[in-house]
Amino acid sequence: MNVKLDKNHTKKSIYGILIIVVMIMAIYATSILSHFNSVQAVAVPAKSVINDNFPSSYKGYIDSLKKAHPSWTIKAFHTNLDWNTALNAESSGTYSRVQDSAFPDAWKRLESKKSADYNAGGFVLASKAAVAYTMDPRNFLNDQSIFQFRVVTENFDQDTQEAVNEAMVNTPMKDKSYAKTITDVGKSRGVSPLFLISRIRQETGCDIINNKSINGEHPSYKGYYNFFNIGAYDDASNSVKYGLALAKSKGWNSHDKAIAGGIDWLKENYLKYGQNTVYFQKFDVANPYGNALTILSWQYMSNISAPQSEAQIAYNGLVRSKTLDKKYTFYIPVYENMPAYAAPYPGQSVQQYQDDNTRMKVKDSVAPDVLHVRSGPGTGYGIVYKLVPGEQFTRIKKNLYDVWDIIRLDNGSTGYVHRDYIEECRRVTSLSLKEKEITMKLNATHKLEYTIGPEDAYNKEVEWQTSNENIVSVSNGELVAKGGGEATITIKSKDTGMTDTCKVTVIVDVEGITLPKTEYKMMKDKTYTITPTILPANATNKEYSITSDNNGIVKVEGKSIKAVSTGSTTIKFTTEDQGKTITANVTVVEVNKEDALAPDKEVFSVDEEKEQVSKIEPETKLADIKEKISYNKELYNMVIKDLNGNVLEDDSVVGTGTTINLVTKDTQDELQTYTVIIYGDTSGDGKISPSDYVKVRNSLLNINVLQNEFEIAGDANKDGKISPSDFVKIKNEILGNKTIVQ
Known about the structure:
This protein is of the alpha+beta class. The protein has 6 domains: about 5-335, no CATH class; about 355-425, Roll (SH3 type barrels); about 430-505, Immunoglobulin-like; about 510-590, Sandwich (Immunoglobulin-like), CATH 2.60.40; about 600-675, no CATH class; about 690-735, no CATH class. About 20% of the residues lie in helices and about 25% in strands. The chain contains 15 helices and 38 strands. The strands form 12 sheets. A 5-stranded antiparallel β-sheet has the order 12-11-10-7-13, with no helix packed on it. A 5-stranded mixed β-sheet has the order 33-34-38-37-36, with no helix packed on it. It starts with 6 loop residues before the first helix and ends in an 8-residue tail after the last helix.
């Protein structure tokens, strides 16, 4: 549970001469907001700078994390604060505490033990060494601890409900509705749900059974909840009561309201000032927006282990949900005048090691041609192995304060060597494929060659990857073309991750061409389109040409055929690839007016030039208009189709885009076609509804502009264009005011 201060009071009062605010944790508490005790104000530094420029003492950790998690974005957050100034401020007064029962004396400020401020609900003042250790970011640049530096207002959409649920493992809140509530509310407010559950668990243990802050059973505040323990201060016995009093004042009488209200409070009091990581909420050193009124004064908790604890909760949720490698953003604090090495663990000797996994070798200049591997860090220790110049091994731990590193030999033995006599093995610095782009035939094979340097690089192993296994596979650089299309082959150095790529295009030859049929009947002066099928379906080049044996009967116009005059001829389709051909016989006929489709002009409005039929009322069924169109039933059939080409039944509704077709009985060719227009029906369903209203509005806004018969149908007032007046007419028609004349 965290004790809270009024934001405005704190920001202004820090400039006062003395501020004494007494706040103590409740029995369930895990962290305490520090109060002020003769703290000297620190001038607000310049606006924090965020970039990729890490100090050298950070780079090894950062490079390792980036290599292990390439999807993560890790930025240097330059606080513009002096390290010692920040450390002294956080080590003074009651800013920083540790749980008395959980840490040895080296973590505690024992000289203040007799002070009334020393113990607050089981949390005691932290030693300067403990503050330095937890405040130094370099001590926490690993997979788990780095989540205290996660920016909770960025990439929050990467948090899954499963991860939130798994962060509640072994608590009564797991596998209930809380994960969905926290995820939905957090994302709607732009805050990481995983950060929220980490804070809730840190504060309450997610104990909805026993913790009165969140079980709604407090005798004085039944039905109220405070998941973040906001306002829970004063003393150990009443802290929950004070937090619930605040909850009641804010109307937090449901889980949703309490969680949403807590998020809003965090945003207003911390996130908007740039305290957007757990670390920054403990150590007030951030000023990314340039709006901080004070610095080193406003912190959510005084428990120096809380950031690490919350980071562990988040990490566990991600690991258990298998979402650790999603896109997350981290701001790693950097101070001015930092020590060359990370602050040591409290009570630990100066001898401290950093985990390492660097391939090393004995320098060629070692004399007298041998390097002793010793059992301990110094020449006084026994020799366990002897290495010759150029011999390789792995450094597993790098000494941060001395010159004796721990190494592991290839035979598994470990020992200590003096750093002056070893150096890193040369790593891969160049990798290049000899071919950057190639074309292959289906089922063909090809071997890709590459160069890698330098010649004496330690690890020259590479791995291969294809962007599409269905197009081309790769194994040790050997390609197999499996399907038509394009794929990218990537070669990657196992040592440094350096890559190069080759674009592969697989061509599938045409094997044949077919037509729906080989006999066609066409109406004079009309244009038709016959589309052949190119085989196989995945052929790379499906282009084809059309020729006519008699241009006086049938004239080819691109991919269309125009029936010029009556008679018969042959047309040929030829593929561009492989020259595959197929022919069809075409007979051009002239339909007498007595035989042709003749919509009743007393009933319909007919545009013969555009072959369009209108004056049909919305929701008219096919049967109501079918008998009002004449044609020679001995020679032809009349087939009426919807806008998708499906034949309509008599009880079907006719809509914009419906076609009325004259079809030959012998060859089933469509000779004459009329298209139906129903003004106001822009969707083709034969009705005037809100969807038509939306389509006309979008067309006016140049979003999905209506075209062809639908553009005509959208012109409700028939003035030749779609305008706001059409929009209004359709709206009134929907409301029951008949304003559209068909």
